[in-house]
Write a structure and sequence with these properties.
Number of strands: 15
Distance between the termini: 21 Å
Structural class: alpha/beta
Number of helices: 12
Radius of gyration: 21 Å
Number of domains: 2
CATH architecture of the largest domain: 3-Layer(aba) Sandwich
Bound molecules: pyridoxal-5'-phosphate
Largest sheet: 7 strands, mixed
Shape: globular
Order of helices and strands: HHHEHEHEEHEEEEEHEEHHEEEHHEH
CATH superfamily of the largest domain: Type I PLP-dependent aspartate aminotransferase-like (Major domain)
């Protein structure tokens, strides 16, 4: 049995007519740039997340770059974030000549260890950039407390976090991205809400920030050919919006299926002594965008899975403080031992709504065979 790490084909085949109709309608109208489907998707995502404003942009990376620019994460200012995340969480700061200041992660959640944030705050600190990574949100209660105490801006990297909700000590669940000043989503194809190409969205509850983000995506223009700022050319494609509108209709079902798959993995592998699962911490609703394990002999396990035609992925094999592109930040090996340790043990197994229980069973059997238990 061959199990791919990810495939878009099963979903497309299931809903072919709907996707084709959505694409066809854009081609017939020719409303390729900021067409009505973009406004519709923004509106539907506002409804879904309860964010007051949503602005579609060209990618999750662009969403981070634009939000960081507007919040002033630049020009020597420091932003506290995690070294264990996708590049864009930190490059959105260095792109503007700001400085990411890393803190180590929590070994059980892989999120930034909130107990280590405050000691990094100084005169130059302007913000905190938490990442809601893999399946759960960072501790937003603590992060917003620290931000409030020191008047810091908060940019939530919710690229992987569509559908995740945080309650913490609050009375209501709040959708990821709606707690800080800005939140960003990625619609990269593999993401929980993924398109058929690149796409992203910025959300906020602040009218002024929303206005600015709207200008920034069209070169900083308040109206055609009148520029308030030097902005970007970064729009969510109408074609992608049309596709995402189809996907959004089924998102709760897709999230539920991901949860069932995660449950099957956990139940089937729970007696395997050589692996550990991350722990969900804090009062929250996780979404299994990725299903991760910490595995002994990870590299040998990966090789074994490949030999058995089972897809896997490693997020992330090298923490950001050890990346060549961030060499001038002056970090070295050993600075963030937990992130380094986790990056040597972590491995992600296939999880998508269309994977079958037989396939998951097969993967688990192979893993048990590998460890002979
Ligand atoms: C996917 C991702 C991004 C970037 O999104 P793109 O749409 O691929 O540009 C940023 N941060 C995290 C944590 C991501 O997983």
């Amino acid at each position: 049995m061959k199990v791919s790490f990810y495939t878009s084909q099963r979903e497309f085949n299931e809903k072919k007519d709907e996707f084709n109709r959505a694409i066809q309608s854009v081609l017939e109208k020719g409303n390729f740039i900021l067409g009505e489907q973009v406004a519709q998707l923004e509106n539907d995502i506002q409804q879904y997340t309860q964010a007051k404003y949503a602005i579609g942009v060209a990618s999750g990376t662009d969403a981070l770059i634009i939000a960081a620019d507007i919040l002033g994460f630049k020009d020597g200012k420091e932003v506290i974030t995690s070294p264990f995340t996708f590049l864009a969480s930190a490059s959105c700061i260095t792109k503007h000549r700001g400085r990411p200041v890393f803190v180590d992660i929590d070994e059980e959640t892989f999120a930034m260890d909130v107990n280590k944030i405050e000691e990094k705050v100084n005169q130059k600190t302007i913000g905190i950039l938490p990442i809601h990574l893999f399946d759960q949100m960072a501790d937003m209660d603590r992060i917003m407390d620290i931000a409030g105490n020191h008047q810091l801006k908060v940019l939530e990297d919710a690229a992987e976090a569509f559908g995740m909700r945080w309650k913490g000590n609050g009375r209501h669940y709040k959708h990821s991205g709606t707690i800080g000043d800005f939140g960003v989503f990625s619609f990269f194809p593999t993401k929980t809400l993924g398109g058929y190409g690149d796409g992203g969205m910025i959300i906020t509850n602040n009218e002024e920030l929303a206005q600015q983000a709207k200008y920034y995506r069209v070169h900083g223009a308040s109206k055609k050919y009148h520029y308030e700022y030097v902005g970007y050319n970064s729009r969510l494609d109408t074609l992608q919006a049309a596709i995402l509108l189809v996907k959004l209709k089924y998102i709760d079902d897709a999230i539920r299926k991901r949860e069932e798959i995660a449950k099957q993995y956990i139940e089937t592998l729970s007696d395997c002594k050589n692996i550990r699962f991350p722990k969900i911490k804090g009062e929250q609703k996780p979404v299994y965008y990725v299903f991760n394990l910490l595995a002994e002999n990870r590299d040998e396990l990966a090789e074994y899975l490949a030999k058995n035609e089972i897809g896997y992925s490693i997020y992330y094999p090298r923490p950001l403080h050890l990346q060549a592109c961030f060499g001038d930040l002056g970090y070295k090996k050993g600075d963030f031992p937990i992130a380094e340790r986790v990056s040597n043990k972590i491995i992600a197994l296939p999880i998508y709504p269309e994977i079958t229980t037989d396939e998951v069973e097969f993967i688990c059997e192979k893993i048990k065979l590998f460890y002979k238990n």
